[in-house]
Specification:
Elements: E1 2-7, E2 13-15, H1 35-44, E3 53-57, E4 62-65, E5 69-75, E6 78-82, E7 85-87, E8 93-95, E9 100-106, E10 111-116, E11 150-152, E12 178-185, H2 194-202, E13 205-211, E14 215-219, E15 240-245, E16 250-252, E17 260-262, E18 269-272, E19 274-278, H3 283-287, E20 294-299, H4 302-323
Parallel strand pairs: 12-20
Antiparallel strand pairs: 1-4, 1-11, 2-3, 3-10, 4-9, 5-8, 5-10, 6-7, 6-9, 12-19, 13-14, 13-20, 14-17, 15-18, 16-17, 16-19
Helix pairs in contact: 1-4
Length: about 325
C-alpha cells in the first residue's frame, strides 16, 4: 500500500516519536513537533504510539491512496476533504482505493498530522523514521515530500482498531492565541539584570514568522544583560558565552534582546547563553503556537517540571484508554 503525492504542500515530512540517544554527538531528536496530536491520531487508527505519520505545515498535501486505508487527521484545525467532500478531523476516515485526500486553509496553529493504519513505512535511521532536514537523512529520502513521490504504508498490526471513531473534544489539544509556557531558569539567567529577568518573566512575547522545526523566535520588551568583560573564546555580544551544550527547549537570546526557543531539530550546542528551558510537558504547546501568539513565561522549579512530565504521561495513558486503544 502507498500514497501517491500529487501536491506536496508547504513542508510535509515523515515523523515519529523521534531519534533519541544521539544528541551528545550533534544529532537532534527530530520527531513530530506536536507529539500529543500525532499519538492521538495513531490511537484512532489502531497503531502503536511510535508509528510514523505525515507532518503537514500550514499547507497540506494532496495525495491518492492505491488501496483501501484507515486514516485520521489530527493537530491544528484544518478543513479535510476526501474527493472534494468535507470530512471530520479527529475521526477515523476510511479511504477506498483511488480516493484523493486534500486540505483547505489551516485555521489555527501550524501543524497537523496524517496518521494511517500500519504507519508510514520508510527505513529507520538510527532507530527512527523521522526526517532530519538539515542532516538530509531519515524520513522519505531525507527531505520534504515532492510531487510524484510514492510513500509506502506498512501492514496493519494485530491490534484491534478502537470502536470509538472520534477523539472526544475533552482530550483534544487547544490552539489558542495566548499561552503560558512553563520554564526552568538557568543555566545563565544570572547574567541578566534584575530588569532583564523581570522582562523575561512578566513581559508579553509574540511568536514571529521566523519559526520552524529548529526553533521559534519571539518579539517583546527585550532583556538586559549585566556588564562584564567577555571571557576568552566568547563573542563580543553580551549574550555570547564560551560554547556550551543546549538542552532541548533551551531559551537563548542571540543579539541580546529577543528570545528563541530551540525545538526538535535544533543544534545541540553553541555560543549563546541559555537563560531558561521550556519544561518537557509544554514543548507540544510551544509547537502549536502560530505567528502572533501571545506568550508569557512562568518560572517553576525542577521538581515541579518533573511532576508536570509525569502528569503529561498519565494524561496520555488516560486519553488512549478513553479512545479504547492500548499503548
Amino acid at each position: 500500500m502507498a500514497f501517491e503525492i500529487k501536491v506536496p504542500g508547504l513542508a510535509t515530512t515523515v515523523q515519529d516519536q523521534g531519534r533519541n540517544g544521539y544528541y551528545s554527538v550533534g544529532i537532534p531528536q527530530s520527531g513530530s513537533m506536536d507529539q500529543y496530536s500525532a499519538e492521538l491520531g495513531n490511537a484512532l487508527v489502531g497503531n502503536t504510539p511510535k508509528e510514523a505519520v505525515l507532518e503537514c505545515t500550514y499547507l497540506g498535501p494532496t495525495l491518492v491512496t492505491n488501496e483501501d486505508a484507515l486514516i485520521a487527521v489530527t493537530g491544528a484545525p484544518v478543513e479535510v476533504k476526501v474527493n472534494g467532500e468535507r470530512r471530520q478531523q479527529w475521526s477515523q476516515l476510511r479511504l477506498q482505493a483511488g480516493d484523493e485526500l486534500s486540505f483547505g486553509v489551516i485555521q489555527g496553529g501550524t501543524r497537523y498530522y496524517i496518521c494511517v493504519q500500519g504507519g508510514i513505512d520508510v527505513p529507520e535511521v538510527l532507530g527512527s523514521r523521522s526526517t532530519y532536514l538539515l542532516g538530509a537523512f531519515g524520513g522519505f529520502l531525507g527531505r520534504k515530500l515532492a510531487a510524484g513521490d510514492v510513500v509506502p504504508v506498512g501492514s496493519p498490526s494485530q491490534k484491534a482498531v478502537p470502536h470509538v471513531g472520534t477523539v472526544p473534544e475533552s482530550i483534544r489539544p487547544v490552539f489558542e492565541k495566548e499561552q503560558i509556557v512553563r520554564i526552568v531558569l538557568g543555566l545563565y539567567d544570572h547574567r541578566l539584570t534584575e530588569t532583564g529577568l523581570q522582562n523575561l518573566l512578566t513581559g508579553e512575547w509574540k511568536v514571529t514568522p521566523v519559526a520552524d522545526r529548529m526553533g521559534l523566535r519571539y518579539s517583546g520588551p527585550g532583556v538586559e544583560w549585566k556588564d562584564r568583560d567577555q571571557p576568552f573564546g566568547a563573542g563580543s555580544d553580551p549574550s555570547n558565552i564560551v560554547d556550551a551544550g543546549y538542552a532541548v527547549g533551551s531559551i537563548q537570546i542571540p543579539g541580546g534582546t529577543q528570545p528563541i526557543i530551540l525545538h526538535r531539530d535544533a543544534v545541540s550546542g553553541g555560543g549563546y547563553a541559555m537563560v531558561g528551558t521550556v519544561v518537557t510537558a509544554d514543548m507540544d504547546l510551544v509547537a502549536r503556537a502560530a505567528p502572533g501568539t501571545v506568550t508569557r513565561f512562568k518560572a517553576i522549579s525542577q521538581s515541579d517540571a518533573i511532576a508536570a512530565r509525569r502528569e503529561l504521561a498519565d494524561n496520555k495513558t488516560k486519553a488512549w484508554e478513553l479512545i479504547g486503544a492500548s499503548r
